[in-house]
Amino acid sequence: MKVLAILGSPRPSKSNTGIILQEFLKGASSQGANIETVYLKEKIINFCIGCNTCWMETPGVCIFRDDMPELLDKVIECDILVYATPLYNYNMTSLLKCFLERLHPLVDAHLVKTGETYRHPQRYAKGRKMVLISTCGLPEVSHFEGLRQIFCQIERSSQMPLIGELLVPAAELLKKKSLQEKIGVILQAAYRAGIEVVSEGKISKKVEGQIQKSPLTPDEVAEMTNKWWDSHIKRNGR
Ligand SMILES: Cc1cc2nc3c(=O)[nH]c(=O)nc-3n(C[C@H](O)[C@H](O)[C@H](O)COP(=O)(O)O)c2cc1C
């Protein structure tokens, strides 16, 4: 089983999302999965200009010869596609959004009806599945609602089942040494999620719940965060 992870954090070396992703991948790897991570920050990916050449002139082939054609091959070959992104403005980062737009060549132009609505079929449908991993700064899990809705739409239109969501609020706590014991529970759950994806084909609600559970209450997170900012904000800006 091939697991391809796409990390959309613009700071991959100190990424909170990357911390969760790596535990997840370790779990998947422990079950024999072949894992690979693509760090979008390190890739050259032009944004889609909507020319539709990949739908009309050269079906399946984009006009841009940047890093994306190689990544499209990886997407086509994988069994599990893991989208890992920090929450930016209640959404995915622009790095990941740009990547998703460039998946256009993998989609066929025709409209097909599935249930009540129309969609574009995938050129290379092969039972690929998706996992969503996201972290955010605010302390409540409700902030992920917009992102979750988007991935539900992607699931419907691509017919690629979303087999689990690992959502971590108050993710700056992941690096707090004083909370290591409680953070350990979250990391173990991420590892377990990786095991489940390979061995059971989906992440259990129990594990998803363990990952979402912040080690501190929202009020405690706010107090700690505000103190941190007060001691770090310099007075020479606007
Ligand atoms: C430009 C920007 C926008 C952000 N938007 C949100 C947001 O809408 N909601 C939120 O809770 N956190 C927001 N955050 C905080 C990040 O989601 C959070 O710090 C995340 O864990 C960073 O992940 P990374 O370390 O993997 O890059 C934002 C951070 C930045 C820099």
Instruction: Give a list of the ligands.
Output: flavin mononucleotide
Total separate domains: 1
Principal-axis shape: globular
- The CATH superfamily label reads Flavodoxin domain
Question: What fraction strand?
Answer: 15-25%
Contiguous runs where pLDDT drops below 50 for at least 5 residues? none
What CATH calls the topology is Rossmann fold
Could you give a short account of the major beta sheet?
A: 5 strands, parallel
Overall pLDDT score: 97
Range of helix content? 25-40%
Name of the CATH class: Alpha Beta
Q: What is the chain-wise order of helices and strands?
A: EHEHEHEEEHEHHH
End-to-end distance: 52 Å
Quick structural summary:
With 238 residues, this protein is an alpha/beta fold. The chain is 38% helix and 16% strand. The longest helix is centred in the last third of the chain and has 21 residues, at 180-200.
Any key phrases for this structure?
238 residues, alpha/beta, Rossmann fold, 5-stranded parallel β-sheet, two-stranded antiparallel ribbon, 7 helices, 7 strands, 16% strand, globular, binds flavin mononucleotide
Could you describe the 3D structure shown?
It is a single chain. The relative contact order is 0.16. This protein has seven helices and seven strands, in the order E-H-E-H-E-H-E-E-E-H-E-H-H-H. With 238 residues, the chain is an alpha/beta fold. Helix 5 (180-200) runs antiparallel to helix 6 (205-212). The mean pLDDT is 97. It has a single domain, classed as Flavodoxin domain (Rossmann fold), CATH 3.40.50. It has helices at 16-30, 68-77, 94-101, 145-158, 180-200, 205-212, 218-232, and strands at residues 2-7, 34-39, 80-86, 112-114, 117-119, 129-135, 162-168. A five-stranded parallel sheet has the order 2-1-3-6-7, with helices on both faces. A two-stranded antiparallel ribbon has the order 4-5. Flavin mononucleotide (FMN) binds at residues 9, 11, 15-18, 86-90, 135-138, 143, 171-172.
